[in-house]
Amino acid sequence: MAHVFISIGSNVERDRHFRQGLSALIEYFPDYIHSDVYESEPVGFSGKNFYNSVFATHTDMPLPDLCALLKQIERDNGRTPQDKKFSPRTLDLDILFYDDMICDTPAQLPRDEITKNAFVLRPLAEIAPEFVHPVQGCSMAEIWQAYDNQKQKLWKVEFSLS
Questions:
Q1: What CATH code is assigned to 2-156?
Q2: Strand 32-34 to 2-10 pairing
Q3: Residue 153 CB-half CA count within 13 A
Q4: Global confidence as pTM
Q5: pLDDT tens digits for range 3-23
Q6: Which of the residues 17, 110, 136, 151 has the least number of beta carbons within 10 Å of its own beta carbon?
């Protein structure tokens, strides 16, 4: 069983799409850990604030199948393949880690934005502080402690699925 971490983000009808994305993940992976939900400003473009979190689970699903599942959940929530990288999103589901796999296809692993974006790193360090980044060789807690990007602000929000 692979230990998998998935980032969840939404800034278009964010409450609805975030809930639907998280609910879909729970339906497929009922044994999970979920970070607090954070609100953050968009990075790389102007737009509405995002809700972000990290979802962790174990799966025997091969990586290509997991990628396809996440893309389908995104499409089910109004995401289209034509959506630009730095643009508003109904739902964004990205695999951050699949065990300690390092690859570029079918997904970039580990995901490059882990060490660059507070909205990914903080919730990841919250639920997996001892998990060691296979390229950096440091734990998520160590990377978060050393993180210094004053431009990226985020704050915890009250969130409940019910």
A1: 3.30.70.560
A2: unpaired
A3: 3
A4: 0.94
A5: 999 999 999 999 999 999 999
A6: 151
